[in-house]
Structure formats: C-alpha cells, structure tokens
Amino acid sequence: MKIVNTIPLSATRAFSQPTEFITVTVAGQLLGLPIGRVHDVFVVNEMTKVPLAQSEIAGLLNLRGRVVTAVSLRSRLGLQEDVRTGRRMAVGLEYQGEAYGLLVDDVGEVLKLDPNEMQPNPVHMDRRWVNLSQGVHQLHGLLMIVLDVDAVLAFEAEREAA
Amino acid sequence: MDDLLLEFLTETSEHLETVDVEMVRFEQDPNNQAILSNIFRLVHTIKGTCGFLGLPRLEALAHAAETLMGRFRDGMPVTTPAVSLILATLDRIKDILGELERHGVEPQGADDDLIAALDQMANAEDHVPDHAPAPANSQTIGTLVHQVLERDLKPGEVSLDELERAFQEAPGPETEKTSGKLVYQVLERSLKPGEVSLDELERAFREAPGPAPSAGSNLRQISPVANADAPSISPKKDTESSDQADGGESVGGKVQTIRVNVDTLEHLMTMVSELVLTRNQLLEIARRNSEDHGYKVPLQRLSQVTAELQDGVMKTRMQPIGSAWQKLPRVVRDLSNELSKQIELVMQGADTELDRQVLEVIKDPLTHMVRNSADHGIESPAERRASGKPEKGIIRLNAYHEGGSITIEISDDGKGLNYTAIRRKASERGIASEAELERMSDAQIAKFIFHPGFSTAAAVTSVSGRGVGMDVVKTNIELIGGTVDIRSEEGRGTTFTIKIPLTLAIVAALIVSSKDQRFAIPQVAVSELVRVSPSSEHTIERINGTPILRLRDRLLPIVPLSKVMRLSEDDEAATGFVVVTQVAQQRFGILVDGVFHTEEIVVKPMSSKLKHIQLFSGNTILGDGAVVLIVDPNGLARMVGSEGQSDEFQTDTSLEKAITAADELTSLLVFRGGRDSLKAVPLSLVTRLEEIDASTIEWASGRPVVQYRGRLMPIVSCDDELEIRTKGMQPLLVFSDGEIAMGLAVAEIVDIVEDKLDVELLAERSDLVGSAVVRGRTTEIVNVAHYLPLVLETWSRSDQRSRQAGTLLLVDGSNFFRDMLVPVLKSSGYRVQTAATAQDAARMLSTGVRPDFIVADLELPGHSSFAFIATLRADAQYRSVPIIGMTLKPDPQMMALARRFKITDVVSKVDRRGLLSALAELGGSLEEAA
Fold it and tell me: How many domains does chain A have?
C-alpha cells in the first residue's frame, strides 16, 4: 500500500514493482486488498453477535484461540447485509494491534498488478466508497477497487469526527 | 538509551524506594544502626553507579546526602529537618532520574541549594570545620580506612550487624571502580546461601539463564521482582520483620529471583490461556466420544499439567501488596509534618499477593485513601488529648485473602465520619431531600462520600478536601470488579474495606443463555439462582410493565437480559431463571432463559471498537470453542439505577411506578374507606394485611400508633372521613419502606382484583392518584406516597417539610428511563409527574397540572415531542415554562432543532447529574425572577 503511494506516477515502468492483491467480492464487485496486510483467509464457522454494537460489527469470531472482531464489508460500503446462509468468508487483518476479520462474500485469486496502472477513483463514485478506496484497476472486463484497509477499519474514529 | 543506563534506572529507583521507607523508619528509631547502614549503603551504591556512568549531578547530590548520613553514623543527632532535607534530596534525585529516563541525558540545572543545605547541616552540629573529613569519609579509600579503624577500635563490640556492615561497606570502593553493584550482590548472597529457596518463578522459568552460576558464587541475584516498573519487594518484606533482625542485609533477599520483562510474562500468560482453552476443547471432545482410543489417559495428564502450568504462570503475575504500600510510610510522614499531627502507619499482611494488573489499579486509590485518613480522619494532638485518646493517631492497613478475593482494610482511629455534616451537605447539594436523609441509616449516609465532588471538609487543604477523589477511588476499584465499603463510628474512627478479585485474567463465571445466545456472568456477583415460571412459587410480576420478583418479602427489580441486550422485542418473558446479582449494596435479578454451568474462563479484553458498551467487561472462548461475551454486573447495575439509591429508594421507585398511568394488568387491593367509598391500591405496594385489636392502638403526641413487630408503627386513616376505630378490630394495610412501616387504616378490605388500570388523573388531591373503573365500579386509586410524609412528620425530629424544588412534568416514552429518573428527581426535591407520550402530557396539562419545569424526551415517536413543545411555546400560559430536552445523543442537529423550538436546555438522557444541575440552575433563575 505504501508502495502505491510512494511511487510517482511518472516513474518508468522498469522501476515499478508489481503489487500483489488478494481479491474479494462483495455484491458482485471485485475489490483488492494489499497482500501485505492480509494475515489469513478463513471460513467463518460460528459467530457471536454483540448486542448493542455498531452495525458495522458483525460479531466476534474464534480464530485459532484468538478472539477476532468481525467487520462486515457490506455494511462498511453501505450495502444491504446478505441474507443468504452458507459459507461465509473472512479476511484476517490487523489494525492498531487488534485482530479483525473482514467479512466478504467470496475470496478470489491473488493478482499481481502494476501500481502505475491504478486509476484514481471516478469523481462521481459514492462518497462511502471513495473514502475506502485508493483507486481502481482495470482488469479484463472487470474493475477492481483497491481497498484502503486502514480506512475500512477506522469507522469509529470517523463517527467521532462527525 | 543503552542497556546499562536502563538497568541503572530500574535499579536506582528500586533503591530509592527502599531508602524512602528506611529513612522514615530511621527517623522514628534513630538508634538503629542497622537501618542507617542499610540506607548508607544504598545511597553509596547510587553515588558509585552515578560516578561510573558519568552523571555528575546525581553523583553530587548523592554524595552530599551520603555525607550527612555519615554524620548521623558518627553520632550526630537525627532531627526531623535533617531527615526532611535528605528526603527532599531523594525527591530531587528521583526527578532527575525521571528526566534521565525520558531523554536519556541528565537534565541541565544546579543543585547548589540542596547541596549547600546538606553540607551546612552536616557541618553544623559537630565541629568539623573543614570539608575534608566528610567527603573523605565517603570517598572510596576513606570509607575503607574508616571501617577498618572502627573495627580496630571496638573489637569487643562485634555484633552480627556490625560485622556485616563493615563487611558490606568494605568492598564498596571497589564497586565504584568496577561495575556497580554486581559485586555487592555476590557478596551478600554468599553471606546467606542457605536461606535461598527456589520460588515459583524459578520453576516456571527453569530453563532461563538466570541461575547460571556467576564467578565466586553459585547464586546470582538480579532483582526480586519480575516486574520492571514496580519497585523491588524483598527489601520491603525484610522491613516488616527487621525490627528484631539485622536490617543491614535487607537487600540480600530471602528468595531467589530473576528479572523478567513484563511483556514476556504477559505473552506467557496469553499462551497459557490459549493452552487452557485448547485443553478445554479437547476435554469437550473426549466427553462427547465415549470410545477410548487410548488417548484419554494422556489427555488427563495434559489436563493436569496444563492446570499446574496455569497455576505457576498465574503466580508469576502475583506480587505482594506491599509493593503498592511502599510509598505510604513516606506519604504519611510528610503529611504528619505538614499537618502537625502524629500519625503512625501500621501495615499488616504486606506479603499478601495479588495480580500485578490489579495492583497497578489499586495503587493510587490506596494512597489517596491513606492521605484522606491522615487529613480528615486523624485529629490534631490537642483534639485527641481532649477526647482522651493517645496523641499519636494510628492508620492501619491490613490485607488478607478471603475466598477468591483479597480484602484490604484501611482504618484509622480518628474522629470518624461526621454524619450530621454529611446529611447537611447531601441536602445542600440536592443529592437527597431531607425527608429521605432522615430515613436513611448511617451506613447509607456514609456512602455519600463516594459522590463526585462531595466534601464536608470545612477548609480545602493542600492535602485533601477538594471533594475530588473518593468517587474516583470507587470507580477505579469497581473497574476491576471490586467493591468498597465504609464503616465509621463517630469519635472512634473509620474503616474502609476494599474487596477485589485476586486476578483479572481468569474468573469463575456462570454461563447463561438468553434467546439462543450465551453469556458469562462473573460468579462473584451472583448470589443465588431462582427459577421462575408463571405457575411456580416464584413469579415475575409487573408494575406498569416493569418486571419485579418478590423474593423473601423483598421486591427485586428484574432486568430481562434479552431486553437490555435488545435481543428481542418481547417484553413478556416470564419463565426462566433469575440470577440474583449483588453489586455493592445494590441487588437486582437478571432474567435469563437458561443456566448451564460455571466455568473458569480466561477474560479477554473487548476490542477497542466495542469497549464503549458498558454491559460487557470482556469476552472469552468457552470449552466448545464458542466466543461468549462477559456481562459486566456493574454496567447492568448502572442501567438499573444509580447506586446511591439504596433499597429504600427502590421501594420508593415502586411507589412512583404505581402512580404512572398503566395500561397493563395490575393486581389491585380493593378496600373501603370513609362513607363506603371504594378505594384501591396496587397490591405490589402492600407489604401485609393486618387486622388489629383497636384497643391496642395508642396515641402518641396526638397521633395513633400501634406496637407492631417490636416497633411503633404509626397509623393513618385512608381518608379524612374515616375515623380510626377505638373498639373492635381495625383492618390495616401495612406498607413498609425499609425500616419504616406505616399502617393505613381502612374500613374494610374488599378483594384483590386483577384489572387493566386506566386511571383518570386527579391533580387536586394528593392522596389520590386518580380514579379508575375496577370491575365495573368507580374506584379511587390511593397514592401511597402521599401518606408516607404524613407519617414521617410525626417521626422526624424537625417539623420541616421536605424541601420543594418545584413540580416537574417528565415526558418520556420509555418505562425504563422514567423509572430511572423519577426517584432521582424526587430525591432532589421535585414533585414529579410523568407522562409516557406527548398526548398524555398535553392531556395532563389540560387537566390543570401546572409544572414549574418540563423535562421531555426529544426522541418520542414521530417527532411528537417537538410538536408538543411547539404547541406549548405557542400557548401564552406555557411560553416561559422552562423545558429541558433529553436526548440519547446530543448532536449538533438536535441542538439546532432544540434552539429553534426554544428548548431551554438539552441534556443527555444518561447524564442524570447534568439534568439535575440544569434543573438547579433553572430553579435558581426562577427564584430570581420571582
């Protein structure tokens, strides 16, 4: 992620290092998380709901003896919760020393992309999405949004500021 | 910062703590050579190390202090100013060390003032005019010579400690040249090698390099504590016992120790916690599979080893409470000088161990309470003499284990709490009305000192009296699941009793379920379990929809867990279990659907994103792998009501509840009053029904009373038209409110009916709530709250009516908030009327209710509150009535709306104190306007 920021757009191709992304889908939209931030990808078995919690927090998970806070990416993106039951996937992240699991619809492959090819967010994109996105990559027939992991997990601070 | 410096800092601050304590002891016992040599040696070590590390400022200070102490050793009398000066020097050294720790370099500055004073003091008494001998005394070679000489001079006097002192001091200079205190320790230890026992820590870290033999010694002591930021303990322990023994070897520990980074321990703890969880999961699987594939025996072993390991690691987190007390002798000494009082600090049970996390939390509260005792508790010598007590006051600290918790008592033999002053202050501050205060027991009155900003001190001193503190003390202690209690006798002293759990990491918890979700409730808070169902002996009853359980003649407020957790909208839950919970003095029942078992759970902190939810204190993973939230009984208690409210207040609440209009089925006791009028009162308010022989009614100061259960119970007639009988049998409804009971004389008890209570409110008569149609007949609903003051008046020593702060209309849609706010407002002297909806409120106003204030929830359904307020503001009659809006979250948007509707003030719904102060302010301005 840092790499993305520090490489100037004018840098020549030869110097740019490809960034690896883990792709996830939410409501049919492809999103990418910088691989360096992702600790693991796991299937959500049993989740404990936390009464009175913010809507973004889906619950608590037991990930190999660690209690992980599950955050719904759908909710963060302002989408309706998925009502379908079945296998739920989560991406394990760390933010400010605490473990989080980002709930997604599905986890896809790992993509190597050239940071130079990242495009800025379209100007008319939803505000919520703009806040969580660093830019857009054009793939074959698909667009992948580069998620800003810190922004995704910074929802409480956001609320306080409001 | 390099390691050497870091090591120096930790070590030196440990030494300084010891010197502080020893110095105070020395002042009291100036002839104790052992203490002096211990202090001397420690300061000398500090000086030596400073010189070695190139810290000139510290070295100069330590040197000057050492010089003065050298004079003491040579026989100079020990005076309080001299000790104060040395303590001041130690403080300066601590300051410099603090800077050093932050910036890695010695701060700029000069200590000429202190050094000059020290030198002057050192030279004053004894006529040693030139500087030379004194420094020589402490300089490397000098000391050695001195020692040798001394020994040569007094060969007959060689006692153990003399010998030892000489022995210890002799190598001192070498230390300076080589590397600090390592040599010291080796020497000390070789002195007493037999006394060393392997401690728990050692066992847990057997493979750690610590015990590796160092040259010339088979034992290598580094420091008694594993905790880097807490001061050493073993000197402290010795301090406790050294009156008879040679204090000179305090630092030479009796336990073999090794310094371990706290992080390492924490990590170890986490790993063990994981291990425990995994073990539990394995055991769970084993339980489910009856077949033994030969793994059960090893599993048992694993289980046992895990338990032992857990125990061992837990012990590494344990620290004697003495380390939290270490600063106190100094604190008390300084205070007694400052306040010109004579105070002795007695500490018992300093070796009682508890979790270091807990220790950190209680350290400051303890210091605060000791300061309080010294300032407020202990009287001046003159006062003490006058009241026939020894001039020297005693503050006693006592710690001991009791069950799974540790009890700490802080007691003084001072003047005790001035209940009269507290009562007066409580009523001045509007925390409770005078009538209520009259009814409260001393124990309840004492609790007021835990209110924020409460101080009865006539003058604010530099020590205390500013009214900050005791509430913080209480909050801190409650934060770790502890309780604090107070017991005081006027003229005899005050005792605070703190009860805290031994550890925060592993607790026994009751696993319960509510709406298919499991929760853990810490066992310490649970006092009993009651099974409830509509058909059984214990049934949940409702007063205006608020669930109540009658348990052994007491009304227990019930909190349905599913409701507070917002797991279900269904409010009618009536079957399940009531977990009777006790938090400090507050009792309430948590209604759950099922109770499973108790389990030792490892408490994991809540994620920072969820910390704001007061209801949970943490989470844990159960044996079956599920994550479960730990309910915080304190958080729940805060939701049930303020803790300042005792049971009596809660009964009061139920009186109020009956007044609020109810549309649910209510059990009513129907009776006849004067002229055969039908009256009714909610059954839940009635304690007993009695029929007494009218001849037993006596008249005391013009009021009828009857001897009832060993007490005098006043009797009131239920209305003016009914005369209390003088012969035959007199039926009574007995209402009791805490210790106070009242008999309501009625003509005849008719029936108990269950009916929908639809009360037409009548404002002009305070003895009636209103009238209702019960079983097809018009019945007057009696307001019990009306009679209690009548009765109280006959009892109270003063004729004063309770202070009336004005009438108030409370409009709030939630039963919960109404029930919570009404007693608070009442206790502040407001006459409170409540309405659940804006429509109700409008109706009440149209029936002639004239409130001085209106407190309204701004979040009533459909913005009806704003519509209501708008109509009020449009009406000339109500244009100027102050309206306080309550909102769950006062955000700017809400504030703007409030301004537009000319709402006088907006407070947060949960901020009761804010509401009271807003009301008090408005009250003040009303009076001014009048």
Answer: 1
Are residues B174 and B29 part of one domain?
A: yes
What global pTM score does this model have? 0.44
Domain count for chain B: 6
**Same domain for B495 and B555?**
no
* pLDDT over threshold 60, residue B191: no
Please give the residue that has the higher pLDDT: either A44 or B735: A44
ipTM (interface pTM): 0.83
Task: Among A46, A49, A52, A159, pick the best mutation site for testing chain B contact (most B Cβ within 10 A).
Answer: A52
Q: Is B888 in the A-facing interface, judged by CB distances under 8 Å?
A: no
Domain of B730, CATH number, reads 2.40.50.180
Backbone angles phi, psi at A12, to 5 degrees: -75, 155
* Spatial CB neighbours of B465, under 8 Å, sequence gap ≥ 6: B375, B376, B455, B457, B459
Is the pLDDT at B511 greater than 90? The verdict is: yes
pLDDT at residue B708 greater than cutoff 90: no
Q: Is residue A6 part of a domain?
A: no
Instruction: Looking at the structure, tell me whether residues B635 and B673 fall in a common domain.
Output: no
Closest CA to B483 of B590, B417, B616, B582: B582
CB-CB under 8 Å, B615 with A67: no
Q: Does A154 touch chain B (CB under 8 A)?
A: no
Domain of residue B278 covers 262-316
**Hey, are the CB atoms on A52 and B565 less than 8 Å from each other?**
yes
**Interface residue A48 vs chain B (CB under 8 A):** yes
Average pLDDT, chain B: 72
Q: Are strands A98-104 and A66-72 parallel, antiparallel or unpaired?
A: parallel
Distance CA B208, CA B260 (A): 10
Residues B337 and B440 both lie in one domain: yes
B259 and A CB contact within 8 Å: no
Run of H or E residues at A98: strand A98-104
Are B465 and B373 found together in one domain? yes
What CATH number should be reported for the domain holding residue B56? 1.20.120.160
Cβ B5 vs Cβ B104: under 8 Å? yes
Question: Both B669 and B608 in a single domain?
Answer: no
pLDDT category of residue A10 using cuts at 50, 70 and 90: very low
Cα–Cα nearest to B746, from B760, B766, B767, B769: B767
Domain stop point among B800, B833, B856: B800
Interface A:B, Cβ pairs < 8 A: 62
What is the C-alpha to C-alpha distance for residues B60 and B891, in angstroms, rounded to an integer? 58
User: Quick one: pLDDT at residue A70?
Assistant: 92
C-alpha to C-alpha distance for B888 and B756, rounded to whole angstroms: 31
Answer yes or no: do B615 and A53 touch at CB < 8 A: no
Q: Could you give the angle at which helices B80-103 and B112-124 cross, rounded to 10 degrees?
A: 150
Does residue B87 lie in a domain region?
A: yes
pLDDT digits (tens, 9 = 90+) for B283-297: 878 888 877 778 888
Q: What is the DSSP string of B715-776?
A: EEESSTTPPPPSSSEEEEEEEEETTEEEEEE-SEEEEEEEEE--PEE-SS-TTEEEEEEETT
